[in-house]
Protein: AcrR family transcriptional regulator
Amino acid sequence: MLQIAETNTETGAASAQAIRPRNRAGTERAIFIAARTLLAEEGFQGFGVNAVARRAGCDKQLIYRYYGGLNGLIDAIGADLGNWVKDRIPEDTGGMFLLTYGDLMEKLAIYFMDALREDPLVCKIVAWEVSQDTPQVRRLTESRTKALSKWLDKMRGSLTPPKGVDVATTNAILFAAIQHLVVSSAVSGQFAGIPLKSEKDWEKVASSVRRLVRAIYG
Structure:
């Protein structure tokens, strides 16, 4: 890391002292992390080139140079969200011997719930999906949805669901329910009178999710 003066391109003067990596790769990463964090904290209302540059401690022209501007930066975040499931949920089954499709869905549903609880940005995107319809939100949502679908297909392997079950609709409802509970927890700490604050509360949710999956898939 190297301490250098940030140059304000509008005034041509050094406006602040900032610490940022010396090489391009490090600077790009610093900008990306700043953008992702800012988006998680303030949403698109406070998300702009100037705000990202301040958070990253760099000249805003570097955002244009490395990402082509704000849209390119959003695309980069979308690509990262495309890897969200893969990065946060193990592809192995934790040593669990999976005999049925129900075994698989039980495991994946709990993995998904735990991962979502730990990622504030994805929680916000889930909330935006039902409250906003903008090109930025659609871009981020599409990346996440495609990744989840590919992940489910990969994890399923040769396991097949019971006959007569509409898998696509059933799994969509299952994961939508988990998403809504996690978002409700972040907003109010409860849903429909059910507390969603402590680990004990979430253990009850996990137990109910397992029962539902078993009732559907056996």
